[in-house]
Amino acid sequence: MGRKWNNIKDKKASKDTNTSRIYAKFGVEIYVAAKKGEPDPESNRALKVVLERAKTYNVPKAIIDRALDKAKGSAEDTYEELRYEGFGPNGSMVIVDTLTNNVNRTASSVRAAFNKNGGNMGVSGSVSYMFDETAVFGVEGKSVDEVLELMLEADVDVRDVIEEEETVIVYAEPDQFHVVQEAFKNAGITEFTVAEVTMLAQNDVTLDGDASTQFEKMVDALEELEDVQQVYHNVDLDEE
């Protein structure tokens, strides 16, 4: 699973160059999660996941507080969570998760980003069956054995624990996110290089030359869209 961690890491690195846009997206995501329940992460698990991920992207407290205050107030902005699936060059697959207050705008924009960059949108389920929803945590300063022992002591089932570039990565079932997080917390570990529920491809593909360039342009075009929150794919970025 090492390549999957690198894909997550590379995605984070690329997003770090567009911080203002990423912060704006987190503002919407935090607001929507807070409106689903109480604007308190201790009683709202969906909000807790978003806030933990925001922490790994260094989202400023002011932006988080603004989104939470908006959720606590009388604002009733309506957003829909929509997922689009599609294909890029040479067997590449893409999942696009969006939050939108204008479905027609979002559908048109996502379709255009695919079509203008050599891809095409598929029907619901045409791609997602090749991905697994997965909770992922990354910690530094610990060995694989130490993390495995920590999980065993907390009676937490995990899919895998590996080490990549001095980072220990834990893969677990998505419904175990809070259990894994609590196990780390009880061990005094509260800082993570990654902490999120993501979609990981069951099999990666590699792209060369023009196909690789075209794919990167397509992903960039999708990620630049205002309504797009996450873009997942099955391309092995290490070998592009």
From TrEMBL:
Gene3D superfamilies: 1.10.10.200, 3.30.70.980. Residues 3-73 form the TACO1/YebC-like N-terminal domain. The keyword Transport does not apply. It is found in: Cytoplasm. Its main location: cytoplasm. The keyword DNA-binding applies. InterPro entries: Integrase-like_N, TACO1_YebC-like_2nd/3rd_dom, TACO1_YebC_N, Transcrip_reg_TACO1-like, Transcrip_reg_TACO1-like_dom3, Transcrip_reg_TACO1_YeeN, YebC-like. Residues 79-235 form the TACO1/YebC-like second and third domain. It comes from the Bacteria. Belongs to the TACO1 family. YeeN subfamily. This is Probable transcriptional regulatory protein SAMN06295960_1320. It comes from Paenibacillus aquistagni.
